[in-house]
């Protein structure tokens, strides 16, 4: 049995004869041999306000009374140094600067210009952790200096003090006696919350001297690591699992009687670093883990357990005032962890798993619950801090301060802003451009990811990607219009938006349409829709919200029918004849998962057919319950709830919410949010499965039936997020089976099924299926004819074809009976947008319309409801292309289109009369263009397009201040782009001014882009001035000027750019 010890060590300075106090705890008993005393080198002299003061926040840095900066920039250089890690962790230079700032001067380290002395102290364990992660990059002199400032002397070792010594008037003895029971209680409390054991060896050192900016610090070491006798090194670089955790407290922490709440916060914070180090399988991974996962969770845990924050101001100021993406934060990331906790996703329950698996980035974000819809729907809105709007519009946590985050303000006409990935923003839509310009004003809000909307009164819209709001006049469509009698949702300006970037970032636009235009259902021509990259592990966002004039509020459904024919939640049809157990649908929140077992179809003589499979069992996670349904030689399939057989006659309530009830010979499972799963028998041969998710699950479901985006015919995504634009398989070796399907196989660790004794999921996995891919044409004509008679008048044609195929392959007319039941309880309303591996008699088809060359165009084509036309464009040179619609808005109302790049990346769904814009890919090959009309539309439409080579994207290095005289710069070519780059520092305020005269056409737009290339200001016309922007990070920023049309120009322009 491993002995768990907690040691208390008092460390004197080198020149001081200080006593050493060590307590070693094993099962509550004091024991252990004597050892030489430890001592520490002399510390650097303390900065102002250090010795004897209570520790304060992670960045009680410079002035706290300044106006919150626009755009989310760090308020001062200290915040930039201590609370920003652009790549998740500081590089070696920034780590050395942070250490020198908190502990004292280090050889060869120059602090950033203008950095004030530490006005207060911060927990510094994360800075030490990162230094150990960079240890091999430090010079010998730097290693020695770090050891002198941070660590005890090489001869020190824990030892037990005899009881008689407690009578000595040594303040460290008194402190040790006081701290030991508190330490035991605190580590036990954390172990309980995390569900992990107390680290095997925790040593707490009481040091004599203050450090300029460090309230306390920690280091976690492996066996064999430690300071060598000559003091030249700290880490022997052997790595491996944690062996001990050393926590260092200066006098301001251990003097002054019992720990107050602020100092308990600091000690909790540092002890959490011990749990982190012992959780990671290797200290190499721990030392290079991102700050938001290490320092952010320690800051969260310290505040949550102590019931207060530390310091004044607390880190709430830096979470609220200094807006930045989650992954670049350190201390201030604690606000996001508190947001998770408030929405019901307890960080304490997942942190141990995140640390022990070494998760980071998007994987850690999802594991923590960050991708859950309730989290993302309320993160951005919480930053508005308007509690009168409801709980989702307020920040929650321990001792939250009154700071109000900066808000992005946009006008109703032509507004646009961007939220970076893993960031959140609150925004206000004002009447800018609306007053007097539109008699009956309808403000339209569109976003590439779902947003939350509240008006100035009581109206709220949740999880929408398009909303239309009547803000003046009577907004009822008049008789005789296309939308006669339709009332547009009334709202009062200003509108407030909560926007969360998620894994892809969000682009939000506002515009105004008058009532006549709206009632004609003519989408306004807007700037090109941005490309929406696939998000690993989740789905792209929904399309227009139902209250914004969509066809109806009927739920989407995904289904696996027959042997098996799948229809995704977005209406994509495909066939999947693999054998094994697969995930049909899973939710990021963890409350929903549906798995299906597919086994070979048996022919009339009982022989297995390896070219066709059928669903024989379904396993479901519904809240906290596990439910399985399997075929049985009985009137109803076999039902088990948490492993126990049940035959209910009435609905059965499930633990954690939800019900199971008998339904049309099978079972109906209902989630608390209204999501419904029907599992219906196909005689005694198999099961039909229909899942109807609540609309609130848009953007959260993935699997064989996913993603659920609200966009008709959305591309399939495998578990990694890779897209499969055309998944129809003609051979078993095609990607549908070898990559896409394989990624969704159930494993022993993820299976929800019940198994007979001695069996597991491995016994059902069939790598020999399908042996071939069949179509209706491959079956004998007389067999098809008999099956056709059995299936009768089933509709739509796609379902009838599936029935004919299943009866023909199996020889079992029970399939036809099963489809008739489906016809009654789950009508098939999906658009036939997905390619099918068998011909369909449905008049609504997907047709290849031919190839188009770059520089070419197509004449107008007419598309019927449910029809899709596709074109290909070869681009062997991997050039940038500009995609332009040639359709008239009035004629193309029902038409939408999308562009798929050679690498499989799709654009968003684009309204028929709107340009796709400039799209660049590094992959040569064939592009695809799809134009389509939803099957539910009452009318078709006409559409045309052309594609041209885009103008150049030029990088134009420059410095600020920069003056480009009017007309001196020229853009030539469709979508041509100039990037005027310059070096920027976090905190700089950059102001852009259009040149007098402004000769460029209105097609040219401009804005300011961050070092990652994302335009962070509103894209305005080149003749208009963007708002001043405070830079949020150091790096190469740019002024971006774009020709947003397919017209070559040339366009001349000019501007000035200054910084303050």
The main β sheet shows up as: 8 strands, antiparallel
Radius of gyration: 32 Å
- The tally of structural domains comes to 5
Percent strand: 25-35%
Number of strands: 52
Number of helix segments?
19
Helix content: 10-25%
Distance between the termini: 63 Å
Please tag this protein with its features.
single chain, 1060 residues, alpha+beta, Jelly Rolls, eight-stranded antiparallel β-sheet, seven-stranded mixed β-sheet, 19% helix, disordered N terminus, Epithelial_Barrier/Signaling, VWF_type-D, VWFD domain-containing protein
Quick overview of this protein structure:
The protein has 1060 residues and is α+β, with helices and mostly antiparallel strands. The protein contains 19 helices and 52 strands.
List the helices and strands and how they pair.
Elements: E1 5-10, E2 12-13, E3 25-26, E4 29-30, E5 39-40, H1 77-82, H2 92-103, E6 122-123, H3 125-133, H4 140-150, H5 171-194, E7 201-206, E8 214-222, E9 242-249, H6 251-254, H7 261-279, H8 283-287, H9 291-306, H10 316-320, H11 334-342, H12 348-357, H13 361-368, H14 373-382, E10 408-411, E11 415-419, E12 424-430, E13 441-454, E14 460-470, E15 495-500, E16 506-514, H15 515-519, E17 558-561, E18 565-567, E19 573-575, E20 580-587, E21 592-602, E22 608-622, E23 625-630, E24 638-641, E25 644-646, E26 652-653, E27 659-663, E28 666-670, E29 676-682, E30 686-692, E31 701-702, E32 716-717, E33 723-724, H16 735-743, H17 781-791, H18 797-810, H19 814-825, E34 846-851, E35 861-863, E36 868-875, E37 881-885, E38 895-900, E39 910-911, E40 917-919, E41 925-933, E42 941-943, E43 945-949, E44 953-957, E45 962-971, E46 977-984, E47 989-994, E48 1004-1009, E49 1020-1021, E50 1029-1030, E51 1035-1043, E52 1051-1059
Parallel strand pairs: 1-7, 2-5, 6-8, 7-9, 10-12, 34-36, 44-46
Antiparallel strand pairs: 3-4, 8-9, 11-16, 12-15, 13-14, 13-15, 13-16, 17-18, 17-30, 18-19, 20-21, 20-31, 21-22, 22-23, 23-24, 24-25, 26-27, 27-28, 28-29, 29-30, 32-33, 35-42, 36-41, 37-40, 37-43, 38-39, 38-41, 45-52, 46-51, 47-50, 47-52, 48-49, 48-51
